[in-house]
Design brief:
heterodimer; A: mainly alpha; MetI-like fold; flat; B: 440 residues; alpha/beta; D-Maltodextrin-Binding Protein, domain 2; 2 domains; 6-stranded mixed beta sheet; 5-stranded mixed beta sheet; 48% helix; disordered N terminus
């Protein structure tokens, strides 16, 4: 959404041409006014800037600095390592494994979440009696914290007492190691994550749909277009800015997933669900190699920047702004 | 702009001030309204054991009027330790904590060695501590932590199912016996799985310790800082192969890394034997509705047990705390390891008492009469503490967390030697980094 807004604003501001002839006196006055605007703008922004500086910029710069050192138990840099931590990261099997796991995770989570949320939003957009109830229910996962959701899913996935295995047992299917089998665990974590993200994605998509102009649908149905055709040729194209926004948020979220992994699998079994952020957490706080973890953080940051840039570059072409 | 700059400087100054204030925590002890010294204590005891621990704290607070111990549960050992390292050196840090990670805290100078308090105290006799515990919590020739909650991994078995299947627990001594017992339980008592282990490097540590086999070089890091992982020895491969083969034959189930997930199927009668900590003995009496008992973990054919070594935790006092507070914390630590308190603690939880005299206390004698698993655990032969390889490893890099990954890789069909070699190389490289960053 913000991306969309700033773009629109930029288009407007560059569209405003400067007056062709201006006396030096007026120009001076205008410059001064602009300076004053900038200063007052900064003053209004200062609370946010200070918070950002303390909680974002400073830690980010500190992490960059720490990445060039090996750190002791207290997390203080003691040995200068140069690029050692970066080289160790890029050559380590563990990091490569967790990168692969993270990408597969994002591939499983993002499209599935968007597809299900879109279906639910289309359903919930119908004007039927009692729809408010279903909208609330569909949006409910939004109100549940990652930790609480993961604990519930852990019970569902439990190897011997879980409801999923009990259900499979009715059909004579032998129990599945949802979180204990390395080949299945990532899917289980993805399922949990999809469910957790559904509420948010649903709300955003539904909000987008409700702001679509009804005339288009009216004229489309006059022309004899069916439901499916309306969805494909009107709803999805008009919704594309929202879909684009949601996809970016979901990709970044999947790269930052932590809570559900910590509770469901702790990165196991055998590293199968050791997503990047969890790997970083383990190195920083369990193995207490803060320098190494900082180098991994910097690399993760670069990956997310590049991914988002690629998404903007290629994804935005298909986005239709009204 | 000037205003902005001023406010930035202001915030920075406040920040610096806060840092300085917390930096000089140390001189004056915190006291409450009645002038009693407040000692902040962090521990990791939950459920039944948490209640029993709080009882000790309450008894101590009631027993005198100079010191108030303020105890709080901070999650499992690893979580609590992670938290500690975030706050150490600030006002938020505890004064005394129930914990492990001894090599790290000693090398980072975080704690005051327990030996210093004991040397200044003519009432406490260090000889009263069980030798294996004294050895476990010593480093550089001095006692660093006071042993408080000592436990080990044993096999808890469903005694009713054993009887039904015609099994004699006394004959389950070796790896083969254990396999055979698991097989019989499945066939004769209709269990889903004969046995199950928590996927936990700590269990590997116990299995190796029983054989007197080290995980790390330099006597498991007891004689000098460890520099290399050696758990990929032939002994390590043998033990892990045993674990893998039982799983592949379908004799053991995989219930993941959480104690709660492992215990449920045992309570439900779906699994006959579980490898679990003695610290859970009393919790089991509250949840299992069948007769149960415990026995030591097995050793390979032709070997005899080197005696049980202990895990659990010790009490550490932090060097950053004000001196008076540290002394007050020691008063509590000494109280908590006295024979009467330890006897009650052992009877209420299943932990081993850390002092031998606790076994003369009636409360523990009665409890051991009443609960077979408690008696069996306490009647095991403890290691004498002379052989460092039978003690748990003393290292700044935890080999046990890596061994949990090994375990999972083996359940997934990995080759034991290959997986152990990779994992040992990983630990060795972490040890190198740790030694560089912490010992210069």
């Amino acid at each position: 959404m913000t991306a969309v807004d700033t773009k629109a604003r930029r288009a407007r501001s560059t569209g405003r041409a400067q007056p062709p002839h201006e006396s030096p006196e007026r120009r001076r006055l205008r410059r001064r006014r602009e300076w004053r605007n900038l200063l007052s703008g900064l003053a209004y922004l200062s609370p946010v800037l200070v918070i950002f500086a303390v909680f974002l910029f400073y830690p980010a710069i500190k992490a960059g600095w720490l990445s060039f050192f090996n750190t002791n138990v207290r997390g203080l840099p003691t040995v200068f390592a140069g690029l050692g931590n970066y080289i160790a990261t890029l050559t380590s099997d563990g990091f490569r494994q967790s990168l692969v796991a993270t990408v597969s995770f994002a591939v499983m989570v993002v499209p599935t979440t968007m597809a299900i949320a879109l279906c639910l939003a289309v359903l919930a957009n119908e004007k039927l009696r009692g729809m408010a109830f279903f909208r609330t229910v569909y949006a409910l996962p939004l109100a549940i914290s990652a930790a609480a959701a993961a604990v519930v899913w852990r019970l569902i996935f439990h190897p011997s007492q879980g409801i999923l295995n009990a259900f499979l047992g009715i059909f004579g299917i032998s129990p599945v190691g949802w979180v204990t089998d390395p080949n299945v665990a990532l899917i289980s974590v993805s399922l949990t994550t999809i469910w957790m993200h559904l509420g948010f994605t649903f709300i955003v998509l539904l909000g987008g749909m409700q702001s679509l102009p009804t005339e288009l649908y009216e004229s489309a149905s006059l022309d004899g277009a069916g439901r499916w055709r309306q969805l494909r040729n009107i709803t999805v194209p008009l919704l594309s800015p929202v879909l684009f926004f949601v996809s970016i948020v979901l990709v970044i979220d999947s790269f930052q997933s932590f809570g559900q992994i910590d509770i469901l699998t702790q990165g196991g079994p055998a590293g199968a669900t050791n997503l990047i952020v969890y790997e970083i957490y383990q190195n920083a706080f369990v193995h207490r190699q803060v320098g190494y973890a900082s180098a991994q953080t910097v690399i993760l940051f670069l990956i997310v920047v590049v991914l988002s840039a690629v998404q903007f570059r290629f994804g935005e072409r298909k986005v239709h702004y009204q | 702009m000037k205003a902005l700059r001023k406010s930035v400087v202001g915030v920075a100054a406040i920040g610096a001030g806060a840092l300085m204030l917390s930096g000089c925590a140390g001189s004056e002890p915190t006291t409450d309204a009645e002038g009693q010294i407040v000692v902040t204590l962090w521990h990791s005891m939950r459920g039944n054991n948490g209640e029993a621990f709080q009882e000790i704290v309450d008894d101590f607070n009631d027993s005198q009027s100079e010191i108030v111990v303020n105890a709080s549960e901070q999650g499992m050992y690893d979580e609590a330790y992670t938290k500690l390292l975030q706050v150490v050196g600030t006002d938020e840090a505890p004064d005394v904590m129930q914990m492990g990670n001894m090599r790290e805290t000693v090398e980072a100078g975080l704690i005051t060695p327990m030996q210093e308090f004991i040397d200044a105290d003519d009432q406490f006799d260090i000889e009263s501590l069980q030798p294996v515990l004294r050895a476990s919590w010593s480093m550089d020739g001095a006692l660093q932590y006071m042993p408080q909650s000592a436990s080990t991994n044993v096999v808890f078995y469903n005694a009713d199912a054993f009887e039904e299947a015609g099994l004699d627990p006394d004959e389950v001594q070796t790896y083969e016996d254990f396999e055979e017992a698991a097989r019989t339980l499945q066939e004769e008592a209709g269990m889903d799985y004969g046995a199950a282990f928590l996927i936990d490097g700590g269990v590997v540590q116990t299995l190796m310790g029983l054989r007197g086999e080290p995980l790390l070089d330099n006597g498991n890091g007891r004689e000098a800082p460890p520099t290399e992982a050696v758990f990929n020895s032939s002994a390590g491969v043998e033990t892990m192969t045993w674990i893998q083969e039982m799983y592949e034959e379908g004799l053991t189930g995989n219930y993941g890394r959480s104690f709660d997930d492992l215990r449920q199927p045992w309570y439900a009668g779906q699994v006959g034997m579980i490898g679990d900590t003695t610290a859970a003995t009393i919790m089991h009496t509250q949840s299992a509705d069948f007769a149960f008992d415990s026995m030591p973990l097995p050793v390979p054919e032709g070997e005899t047990s080197a005696g049980v070594s202990t895990g659990g935790n010790g009490m550490a006092i932090f060097a950053d705390a004000p001196e008076e507070t540290q002394q007050a914390a020691y008063e509590f630590v000494r109280f908590a390891s006295s024979p009467e308190v330890q006897a009650r603690w052992a009877a209420n939880t299943g932990y081993f008492p850390v002092v031998e005299e606790a076994y003369d206390e009636q409360v523990l004698i009665d409890a051991m009469d009443e609960i077979p698993a408690l008696a069996s655990a306490n009647n095991q032969e403890l290691a004498d503490g002379e052989d460092p390889n039978s003690l748990s490893s003393l290292s700044g890099v935890s080999a046990t967390s890596e061994l949990s990954d090994v375990w999972e890789a083996l359940y997934d069909g990995g080759d034991p030697q290959t997986v152990l070699d990779q994992s040992a190389a990983e630990i060795t490289s972490q040890l190198e980094t740790y030694n560089q960053a912490n010992q210069n």
